[in-house]
Write a structure and sequence with these properties.
With 105 residues, this protein is mostly helical. It is built from four helices and no strands.
Length: 105
């Protein structure tokens, strides 16, 4: 798929320069600008995506711990402690997700 995209891009540039070199130069400049902006945006947002994935993993771990240890939790009255831990992780995950969605909009 990548090779096909590169081939189409190359053929498009060659055809553009053959048909109208004056019009092809701004096309190349715009493509370079879009590439630079896309690279910067993906690096900035990529860190937040990694953070969100780690938070989702932590939430899943809390769910699993809650399900597997439900008898122990009830026996030692730890439900409120686990609820607070889950709420804190969930709030952090929500805030990170909102930041990423705001960056995309």
């Amino acid at each position: 798929m990548i090779i096909r995209g590169l081939a189409l891009l190359s053929v498009g540039f060659v055809a553009g320069f053959i048909l109208d070199p004056v019009l092809a130069i701004p096309m190349v400049l715009i493509l370079v600008l879009v590439g630079i902006v896309g690279t910067i945006a993906s690096r900035l947002i990529g860190k937040n995506f990694q953070r969100i994935m780690n938070l989702f993993d932590k939430i899943n771990g809390l769910y699993r711990e809650n399900i597997l240890g439900s008898r122990l939790i009830k026996a030692f009255n730890l439900q409120s402690t686990l609820d607070e831990s889950f709420d804190k992780t969930n709030r952090t995950s929500y805030q990170a997700t909102v930041k990423v969605f705001c960056a995309f909009s």
